[in-house]
Design brief:
Largest sheet: 7 strands, mixed
Structural class: alpha/beta
CATH class of the largest domain: Alpha Beta
CATH superfamily of the largest domain: FAD/NAD(P)-binding domain
Bound molecules: flavin-adenine dinucleotide
Strand content: 15-25%
Oligomer: single chain
Length: 532
């Protein structure tokens, strides 16, 4: 018999199996004929609503029977060396999880990524951090594992599809992630552990017969007309020279592959503008966030660095925190020279003295009509307004500095009052910050909303609205400003047979787990079509 129960315990007892067992036995009131065999934690969360935070555990108690672990997913994989091939453009979470799913279904993935493998990619990250040099094909967004590799590695998603989420998390564990992610309410891997997991996924793909090509930028799509006069994709051209052919192509290039959007537009393949968000990164001392959330300036050793989420509506637009990184670092996430983009990451222990989060304003398509006449990469079309706007803000931030990746920053209260900060608090941002009038660098309609929202957040979270915090520019790559339209049933592009837009860049995901789920969904749709 298995009984599901909930127990609560203070942080000091969370690692004590004996304490947990005592609480389970007390709650179960089992009879003398019954024996508690196994205690399996299903869910672990922190409840910080009262003065002293507690852990809440949902537990399956196995009485008179043993817990039998699920078989490994990888045990089901067959070798696919001579199976039909599927091209995948992009080795991010969407591309890699599509590849794993294809293998599980007996198809052979051929992956192309413009960037380098995780190890080689590190050198380019160092060059951005220390010398301000941005390699447009290898950076915090491009390269093996995609934007998810050197990230915070938060694995929570708003998706409610438990089965699909569990499949992704189990695969991550089978590739080396800690099994705690299967039970934590807010699972997290950390950017020191993610590269190894990504490299292990690569090994699985190659060992089963798949192929991965790095330094291989897809520069064109080979499109033909079929006998019914419909357009179909035959394959791709890599690095402007080599052609590859397959009956299906997954396009999983992420939200920063701006050249892919122009390529699609120029080939008359439909893309659509979609809303996104833009703003700044906000950085507080972590001890202050711990104080706000836990009531503890020096937090209990067993409690993780506290996180937060804030949201409000200002003049019909959402202003909200995004991709919060407790105990983390702000990183330079530009994908081209002369741009300044910031994002956040953390190590698995989340032990930096800083907390950072995106603080962004929702942007609707109609907010950008004043860009209608501007050009992006020689294209004058309103569907590119989002990209034009993102790039303009990123370049304004860059040119406000000294030509390096040093980022403009302003103390929080100074920002809301439109005041220059005489000096700045310490920051985790390695290239460095300099004092600037962020309230003048950002578009005024974004500034006004942030200036109204920030004091509101301060009312909800006492201590949040402080000059010990600073904002750093700019958080502009929250999601893609485009959607690549696809059929909701068969996941194929609405106009091009065999082309499968996928993941965040196509507008169907926002984050590691949702991108991975989308990759799996697309792979299943392809298998159904190819195997018919
Ligand atoms: C610093 C940082 C921190 C983040 N932290 C988190 C977090 O903690 N949790 C979370 O859920 N999300 C986080 N994100 C967002 C998350 O990484 C993305 O949502 C996710 O990676 C999207 O997956 P994807 O596969 O759709 O695209 P991507 O991960 O963007 O992958 C796209 C891939 O396509 C490749 N590519 C692009 N163009 C071409 C081309 N023409 N030819 C060949 N290859 C190409 C790129 O090199 C890249 O590898 C973070 C992002 C960043 C940048």
């Amino acid at each position: 018999m298995v009984k599901r129960i909930e127990i609560c315990l203070p942080p000091k007892d969370i690692d004590s199996f004996e304490k947990i067992k005592q609480l389970v036995l007390k709650k179960l009131e089992i009879k003398s004929s019954q024996k508690l065999i196994d205690i399996i934690t299903i869910r672990k969360s922190i409840d910080a609503r009262s003065r002293s935070p507690v852990f809440r555990l949902i537990i399956d108690a196995y009485i008179n029977e043993k817990f039998i672990p699920k078989p490994k997913i990888l045990d089901n994989y067959a070798t696919i060396k001579s199976s039909p091939e599927v091209i995948i453009v992009g080795a991010g979470p969407a591309g890699y999880f599509a590849a794993l799913q294809l293998i599980e279904l007996g198809l052979k993935p051929i992956i192309f990524d413009r960037g380098k493998d995780v190890q080689a990619r590190r050198r380019d990250l160092r060059a951005i951090q220390q010398e301000g040099i941005v390699n447009p094909d290898s950076n915090y967004c491009f390269g093996e594992g995609g934007a998810g590799t050197y990230s915070d590695g938060k694995l929570y998603t708003r998706s409610k599809k438990r089965g699909k989420i569990e499949h992704i998390l189990r695969l991550l564990v089978e590739h080396g992630a800690t099994s705690e992610i299967l039970v934590d309410a807010h699972p997290h891997i950390g950017s020191n552990k993610l590269p190894k997991v990504v490299a292990n996924i690569r090994e699985t793909i190659i060992n089963h017969g798949g192929k991965i090509h790095f330094n291989s930028k897809v520069t064109d799509l080979i499109i033909s007309n079929n006998s019914n006069g419909k357009r179909q994709i035959e394959g791709v051209i890599v690095n402007n020279k080599t052609e590859y052919f397959a009956p299906a192509t997954i396009l999983a290039t992420g939200h920063s592959a701006r050249d892919i959007y122009t390529l699609l537009f120029n080939k008359n393949i439909r893309i659509e503008a979609k809303p996104f968000a833009l703003g700044v990164r906000i950085e507080h001392p972590q001890s202050l966030i711990d104080q706000i959330q836990y009531g503890q300036k020096i937090r209990d050793i067993n409690l993780p660095a506290a996180s937060y989420s804030v949201v409000c509506q200002i003049e019909k637009r959402g202003v909200f925190s995004f991709c919060m990184c407790p105990g983390g670092l702000i990183v330079p996430a530009a994908t081209a020279p002369n741009e300044l983009v910031v994002n956040g990451m953390s190590l698995s222990r989340r032990d930096s003295p800083f907390s950072n989060s995106g603080l962004v304003v929702a942007i609707e398509i109609e907010d950008l009509e004043h860009y209608n006449k501007k050009e992006f990469s020689g294209i004058k079309n309103p569907i590119f307004n989002g990209l034009k706007f993102q790039q303009e803000v990123e370049q304004t931030m860059f040119y406000s500095g000294d030509g390096s990746q040093k980022a403009p920053a302003q103390r929080l209260i100074d920002f809301t009052k439109g005041k220059f900060s005489q000096n700045l608090p310490k920051s985790s941002y390695i290239p460095g910050v300099f004092s600037a009038r962020m309230d003048q660098l950002l578009p005024s309609w974004i500034v006004k909303k942030l200036q109204k929202a920030i004091p509101e957040f301060g009312k909800k979270k006492k201590g949040f609205f402080t000059n010990d915090a600073q904002i750093v520019g700019t958080e502009s790559r929250t999601s893609a400003p485009f959607r690549i339209p696809r059929d909701s049933e068969n996941f194929m592009h609405k106009d091009i047979i065999g082309l499968y837009p996928c993941g965040e860049g196509a507008g169907y995901a926002g984050g590691i787990v949702s991108a991975a789920i989308d990759g799996e969904n697309v792979a299943k749709a392809i298998a159904e079509r190819i195997k018919k």
